[in-house]
Design a protein that fits this description.
It contains nine helices and twelve strands. It is α/β, with parallel strands linked by helices. The strands form three sheets. It has an eight-stranded mixed β-sheet, sandwiched between helices. A two-stranded antiparallel sheet has the order 1-10.
């Protein structure tokens, strides 16, 4: 089976900004500005690195979610792996609305969105391609591993960052100098984009959980089926794939809280990650 890549669309730029005040702080770790949210007692025994979507580490939703994981007992790091070059949050307001509003869009509006997406994402994705971003993420994992008190490390990623969470589940790799880099003890990817099937999944060697929406425009049923088949062959490796009915790309981070169904899906996805890491980072 040859690898094929699943791309990105206007869904990557849609969603809602959530209300609340993040409780953590910003530090410099491994050369990156990093939002840090720590559990009661400050234990680093169970550490999670959050790998952001295209909106970056300042996006309020992901900081609030890191706080939620911290309350569940995890020491959470949210690094600026885009190094100050994330897409502006303003795109959430004018690019493809949540699913319940999509049906009311005119043909003209849909065409306008379709034109904006490649103009916005194309140059950004080229600048933040794997050859640039993966060494940054691997380096941050190494930096966290060296922090006193750190035991097991998990990676959680969303959309653009979801693929990099999967890559971290490949285990440690070698850099150009032959040194071990990256690799985590368990990973959780929510609606990943730009994935290669089977290329990104064949090398998975650490526990991996996936949260996918059935209305995700970037992951059709055929691709999801291929992923399920690939992971099913890893009979000795802990893994899970949960499908969330009627959820679009980005639902685990940018759901519309005014919709009870969407809010529940986001809450359930958070609980999925908490339960996964509670089991495999212990």
């Amino acid at each position: 089976m040859s690898s094929h890549n699943v791309g990105m669309s206007s869904c990557c730029l849609s969603g809602k900004v959530h209300q609340g005040k993040p409780a953590g702080r910003v530090e410099t770790i491994g050369g990156l500005q990093t939002y840090v949210s720590e559990p009661e007692g400050g234990s680093r025994a169970k550490t999670i690195i959050f790998i952001v979507d295209v909106f970056g580490y300042e996006f309020q939703n992901i900081r609030l979610l890191a706080d939620e994981y911290a309350k569940a007992g995890f020491y959470c790091y949210l690094p600026d792996v885009h190094e100050g070059d994330s897409l502006p949050i303003s795109f959430l307001d004018n690019i493809e609305p949540p699913l319940k509003k999509q049906e009311s869009l005119s043909v003209t509006d849909k065409a306008k969105n379709a034109a904006i997406v490649p103009a916005t994402l194309g140059p950004w994705l080229a600048k933040h391609r794997e050859g640039v971003s993966r060494p940054i993420i691997d380096g941050f994992v190494n930096a966290v591993r060296m922090i006193p008190g750190t035991n097991k490390i998990g990676a959680i990623g969303f959309c653009w960052g979801g693929r990099y969470a999967i890559l971290q589940a490949h285990g440690q790799s070698k850099d150009g100098k032959g040194s071990d880099v990256g690799g985590v003890d368990a990973a959780y990817a929510c609606h990943p984009s730009l994935i290669a099937v089977p290329g990104d999944f064949d090398p998975v060697s650490m526990p991996l959980s996936l949260a996918l929406g059935t209305k995700d425009s970037l992951l059709d049923n055929g691709t999801v089926g291929q992923i399920q088949d690939l992971m099913a062959k890893k009979t000795t490796l802990p893994h899970e794939i949960r499908l969330y009915e009627d959820q679009v790309h980005g639902f685990a981070l940018r759901s519309d809280w005014s919709s009870d169904k969407d809010k529940k899906a986001m809450d359930d996805a958070a609980q999925q990650g908490i339960e996964w890491f509670s089991k495999y980072l212990s």
